[in-house]
Amino acid sequence: MLPIFIRLPHPGQRCPLTGLSRSTLYKLISSKRVKSKSLRDPGSTRGARLILVESLLSYIHDQAD
Questions:
Q1: Each residue of 11-51: pLDDT tens digit?
Q2: Distance from CA of residue 20 to its chain's centroid?
């Protein structure tokens, strides 16, 4: 069973589901091809970026066509 959200991998590591690098995932997020949410406290500069697995896998599936 797949999770609903996954965190971005640590720098130098790859996504355990797709093998994509952290920088590639950030590019997909910034171009709005993959949906994500940022969890952080108000006023905080640090937080956690969560990627919606469904949107990531859908993007990859669409690229295979």
A1: 999 999 999 999 999 999 999 999 999 999 999 999 999 99
A2: 9
Q: Give me the amino acid identity at 57.
A: L
**Residue ranges per structural domain of the chain:** 5-64
Residue type at position 50: L
Residue 28 CB coordination number (10 Å): 19
Q: How far apart are CA 6 and CA 42, in angstroms?
A: 22
Does residue 13 contact residue 22 with C-beta atoms inside 8 Å? yes
Which runs of E-coded beta strand occur in the chain? 5-7, 36-39, 48-52
First and final CA of the chain: distance in angstroms? Answer: 25
Rg for the chain (alpha carbons), in Å?
12
Q: Which structure tokens are listed for 4? A: 């609903």
